[in-house]
Amino acid sequence: MSDCGCDAHHSGPVLKPIEEALDFLLERVKPVTEVEHIRLEEGLGRVLAVPLSSLIDVPPWDNSAMDGYAVNSRDLQSEDVRLPVSQRIPAGCSGQSLAPATAARIFTGAPVPSGADTVVIQEVCETDGESVQIKQAPSPGANIRAAGEDIQAGQEILSAGIRLKPQHLGLAASVGVSELSVFRRLKVAIFSSGDELVMPGGSLGPGQIYNSNQFTLSGLLEALGCEVIQLGIVEDTFEATCEALSRGAEQADLVLASGGVSVGEEDHVKPAVEQLGSLDLWKIAIRPGKPLAFGHIGETPFIGTPGNPVSLFVTFCVFARPYILGTQGVTEDLIPTPMTAKAGFDWTKPDKRREYARARMSVNERGEAVISLYPSRSSGVLSSVTWANGLAIIAEQRTLSRGDPVQFLSFSELMS
To answer: What pTM did the predictor assign?
Structure first.
């Protein structure tokens, strides 16, 4: 029997707490298993399928951390030592063994010659023709980066399940890796439900609006590295909804719909999913976005978001995003960690649902992070999401006064 969030007497919806809903979703994640081999430069945003180990030491040899002079510390037993400069070693060149009682002019990144165990920074040296006067002797081993100090050969540098960021690609390149084994991209079929919808560029008739949800959803999915399959606008009939759901389930790993998940006479997504498979989750204690649906069309998972554009945006960030990351094979950081800042507003009317309010974090004249809220709570005001740079999380049954701590989820994290 499917758990649609209704009680045994069907007297009304029981709103599932957010943590329970998230746990429910993540427990049902089935990661993709197919692996692709790609070039390193194609790896941004992909999920690593196989741990990556280094074949070399990094750095591969002792090298200078500063511009200066490579010396043997035994030759620095007194102040103002003067040593002849026997060689010059720029980065990319390998010097000769250091002659006793001499110094080698050396530059950052250059290999330290054998016979030297210290680099004296140039700021405490004075040159005079072909010799250098060292006015301040450092400790033995100073300003040298030892071979293998960062990474040792055979060491695992990236674990499977990491979603690759620029710094991961740079690290892989630093050990000479040119190819990566990654999970294939997740295929997500999307459609928008509603006879009132018109694609941008068309003419609006009475009661019609442009289909913004398709572009919001596509952008959110593409930012996560998904392959998006467009099913278009689906008319408000049970038959058309069933056909779109079936078509999406045949082509994709996940079907994601916006609109039609409530209980109105023109809302056909919920009964269509129940007809074709199962509806396992419905009605969450969140504002905006209470009617979030999760189920299966045959074996293919389905997520249905509300049709209001802000509700779609919020429920995607809170629920669909971690589910999709897990299905992509990501193994950690599925749920973002909120920051804490000071409320720059009063919240005087507690709500039984947790609010994800459109918010903007800024820094006041005292250097404190302060959260401001968009003046409208309407879930139809899409411009509020472009005004905001994150979501303020206001707990159930909570009131706030200016200066109280409030949690904040930054779009910079949610959109990456």
So the answer is: 0.88
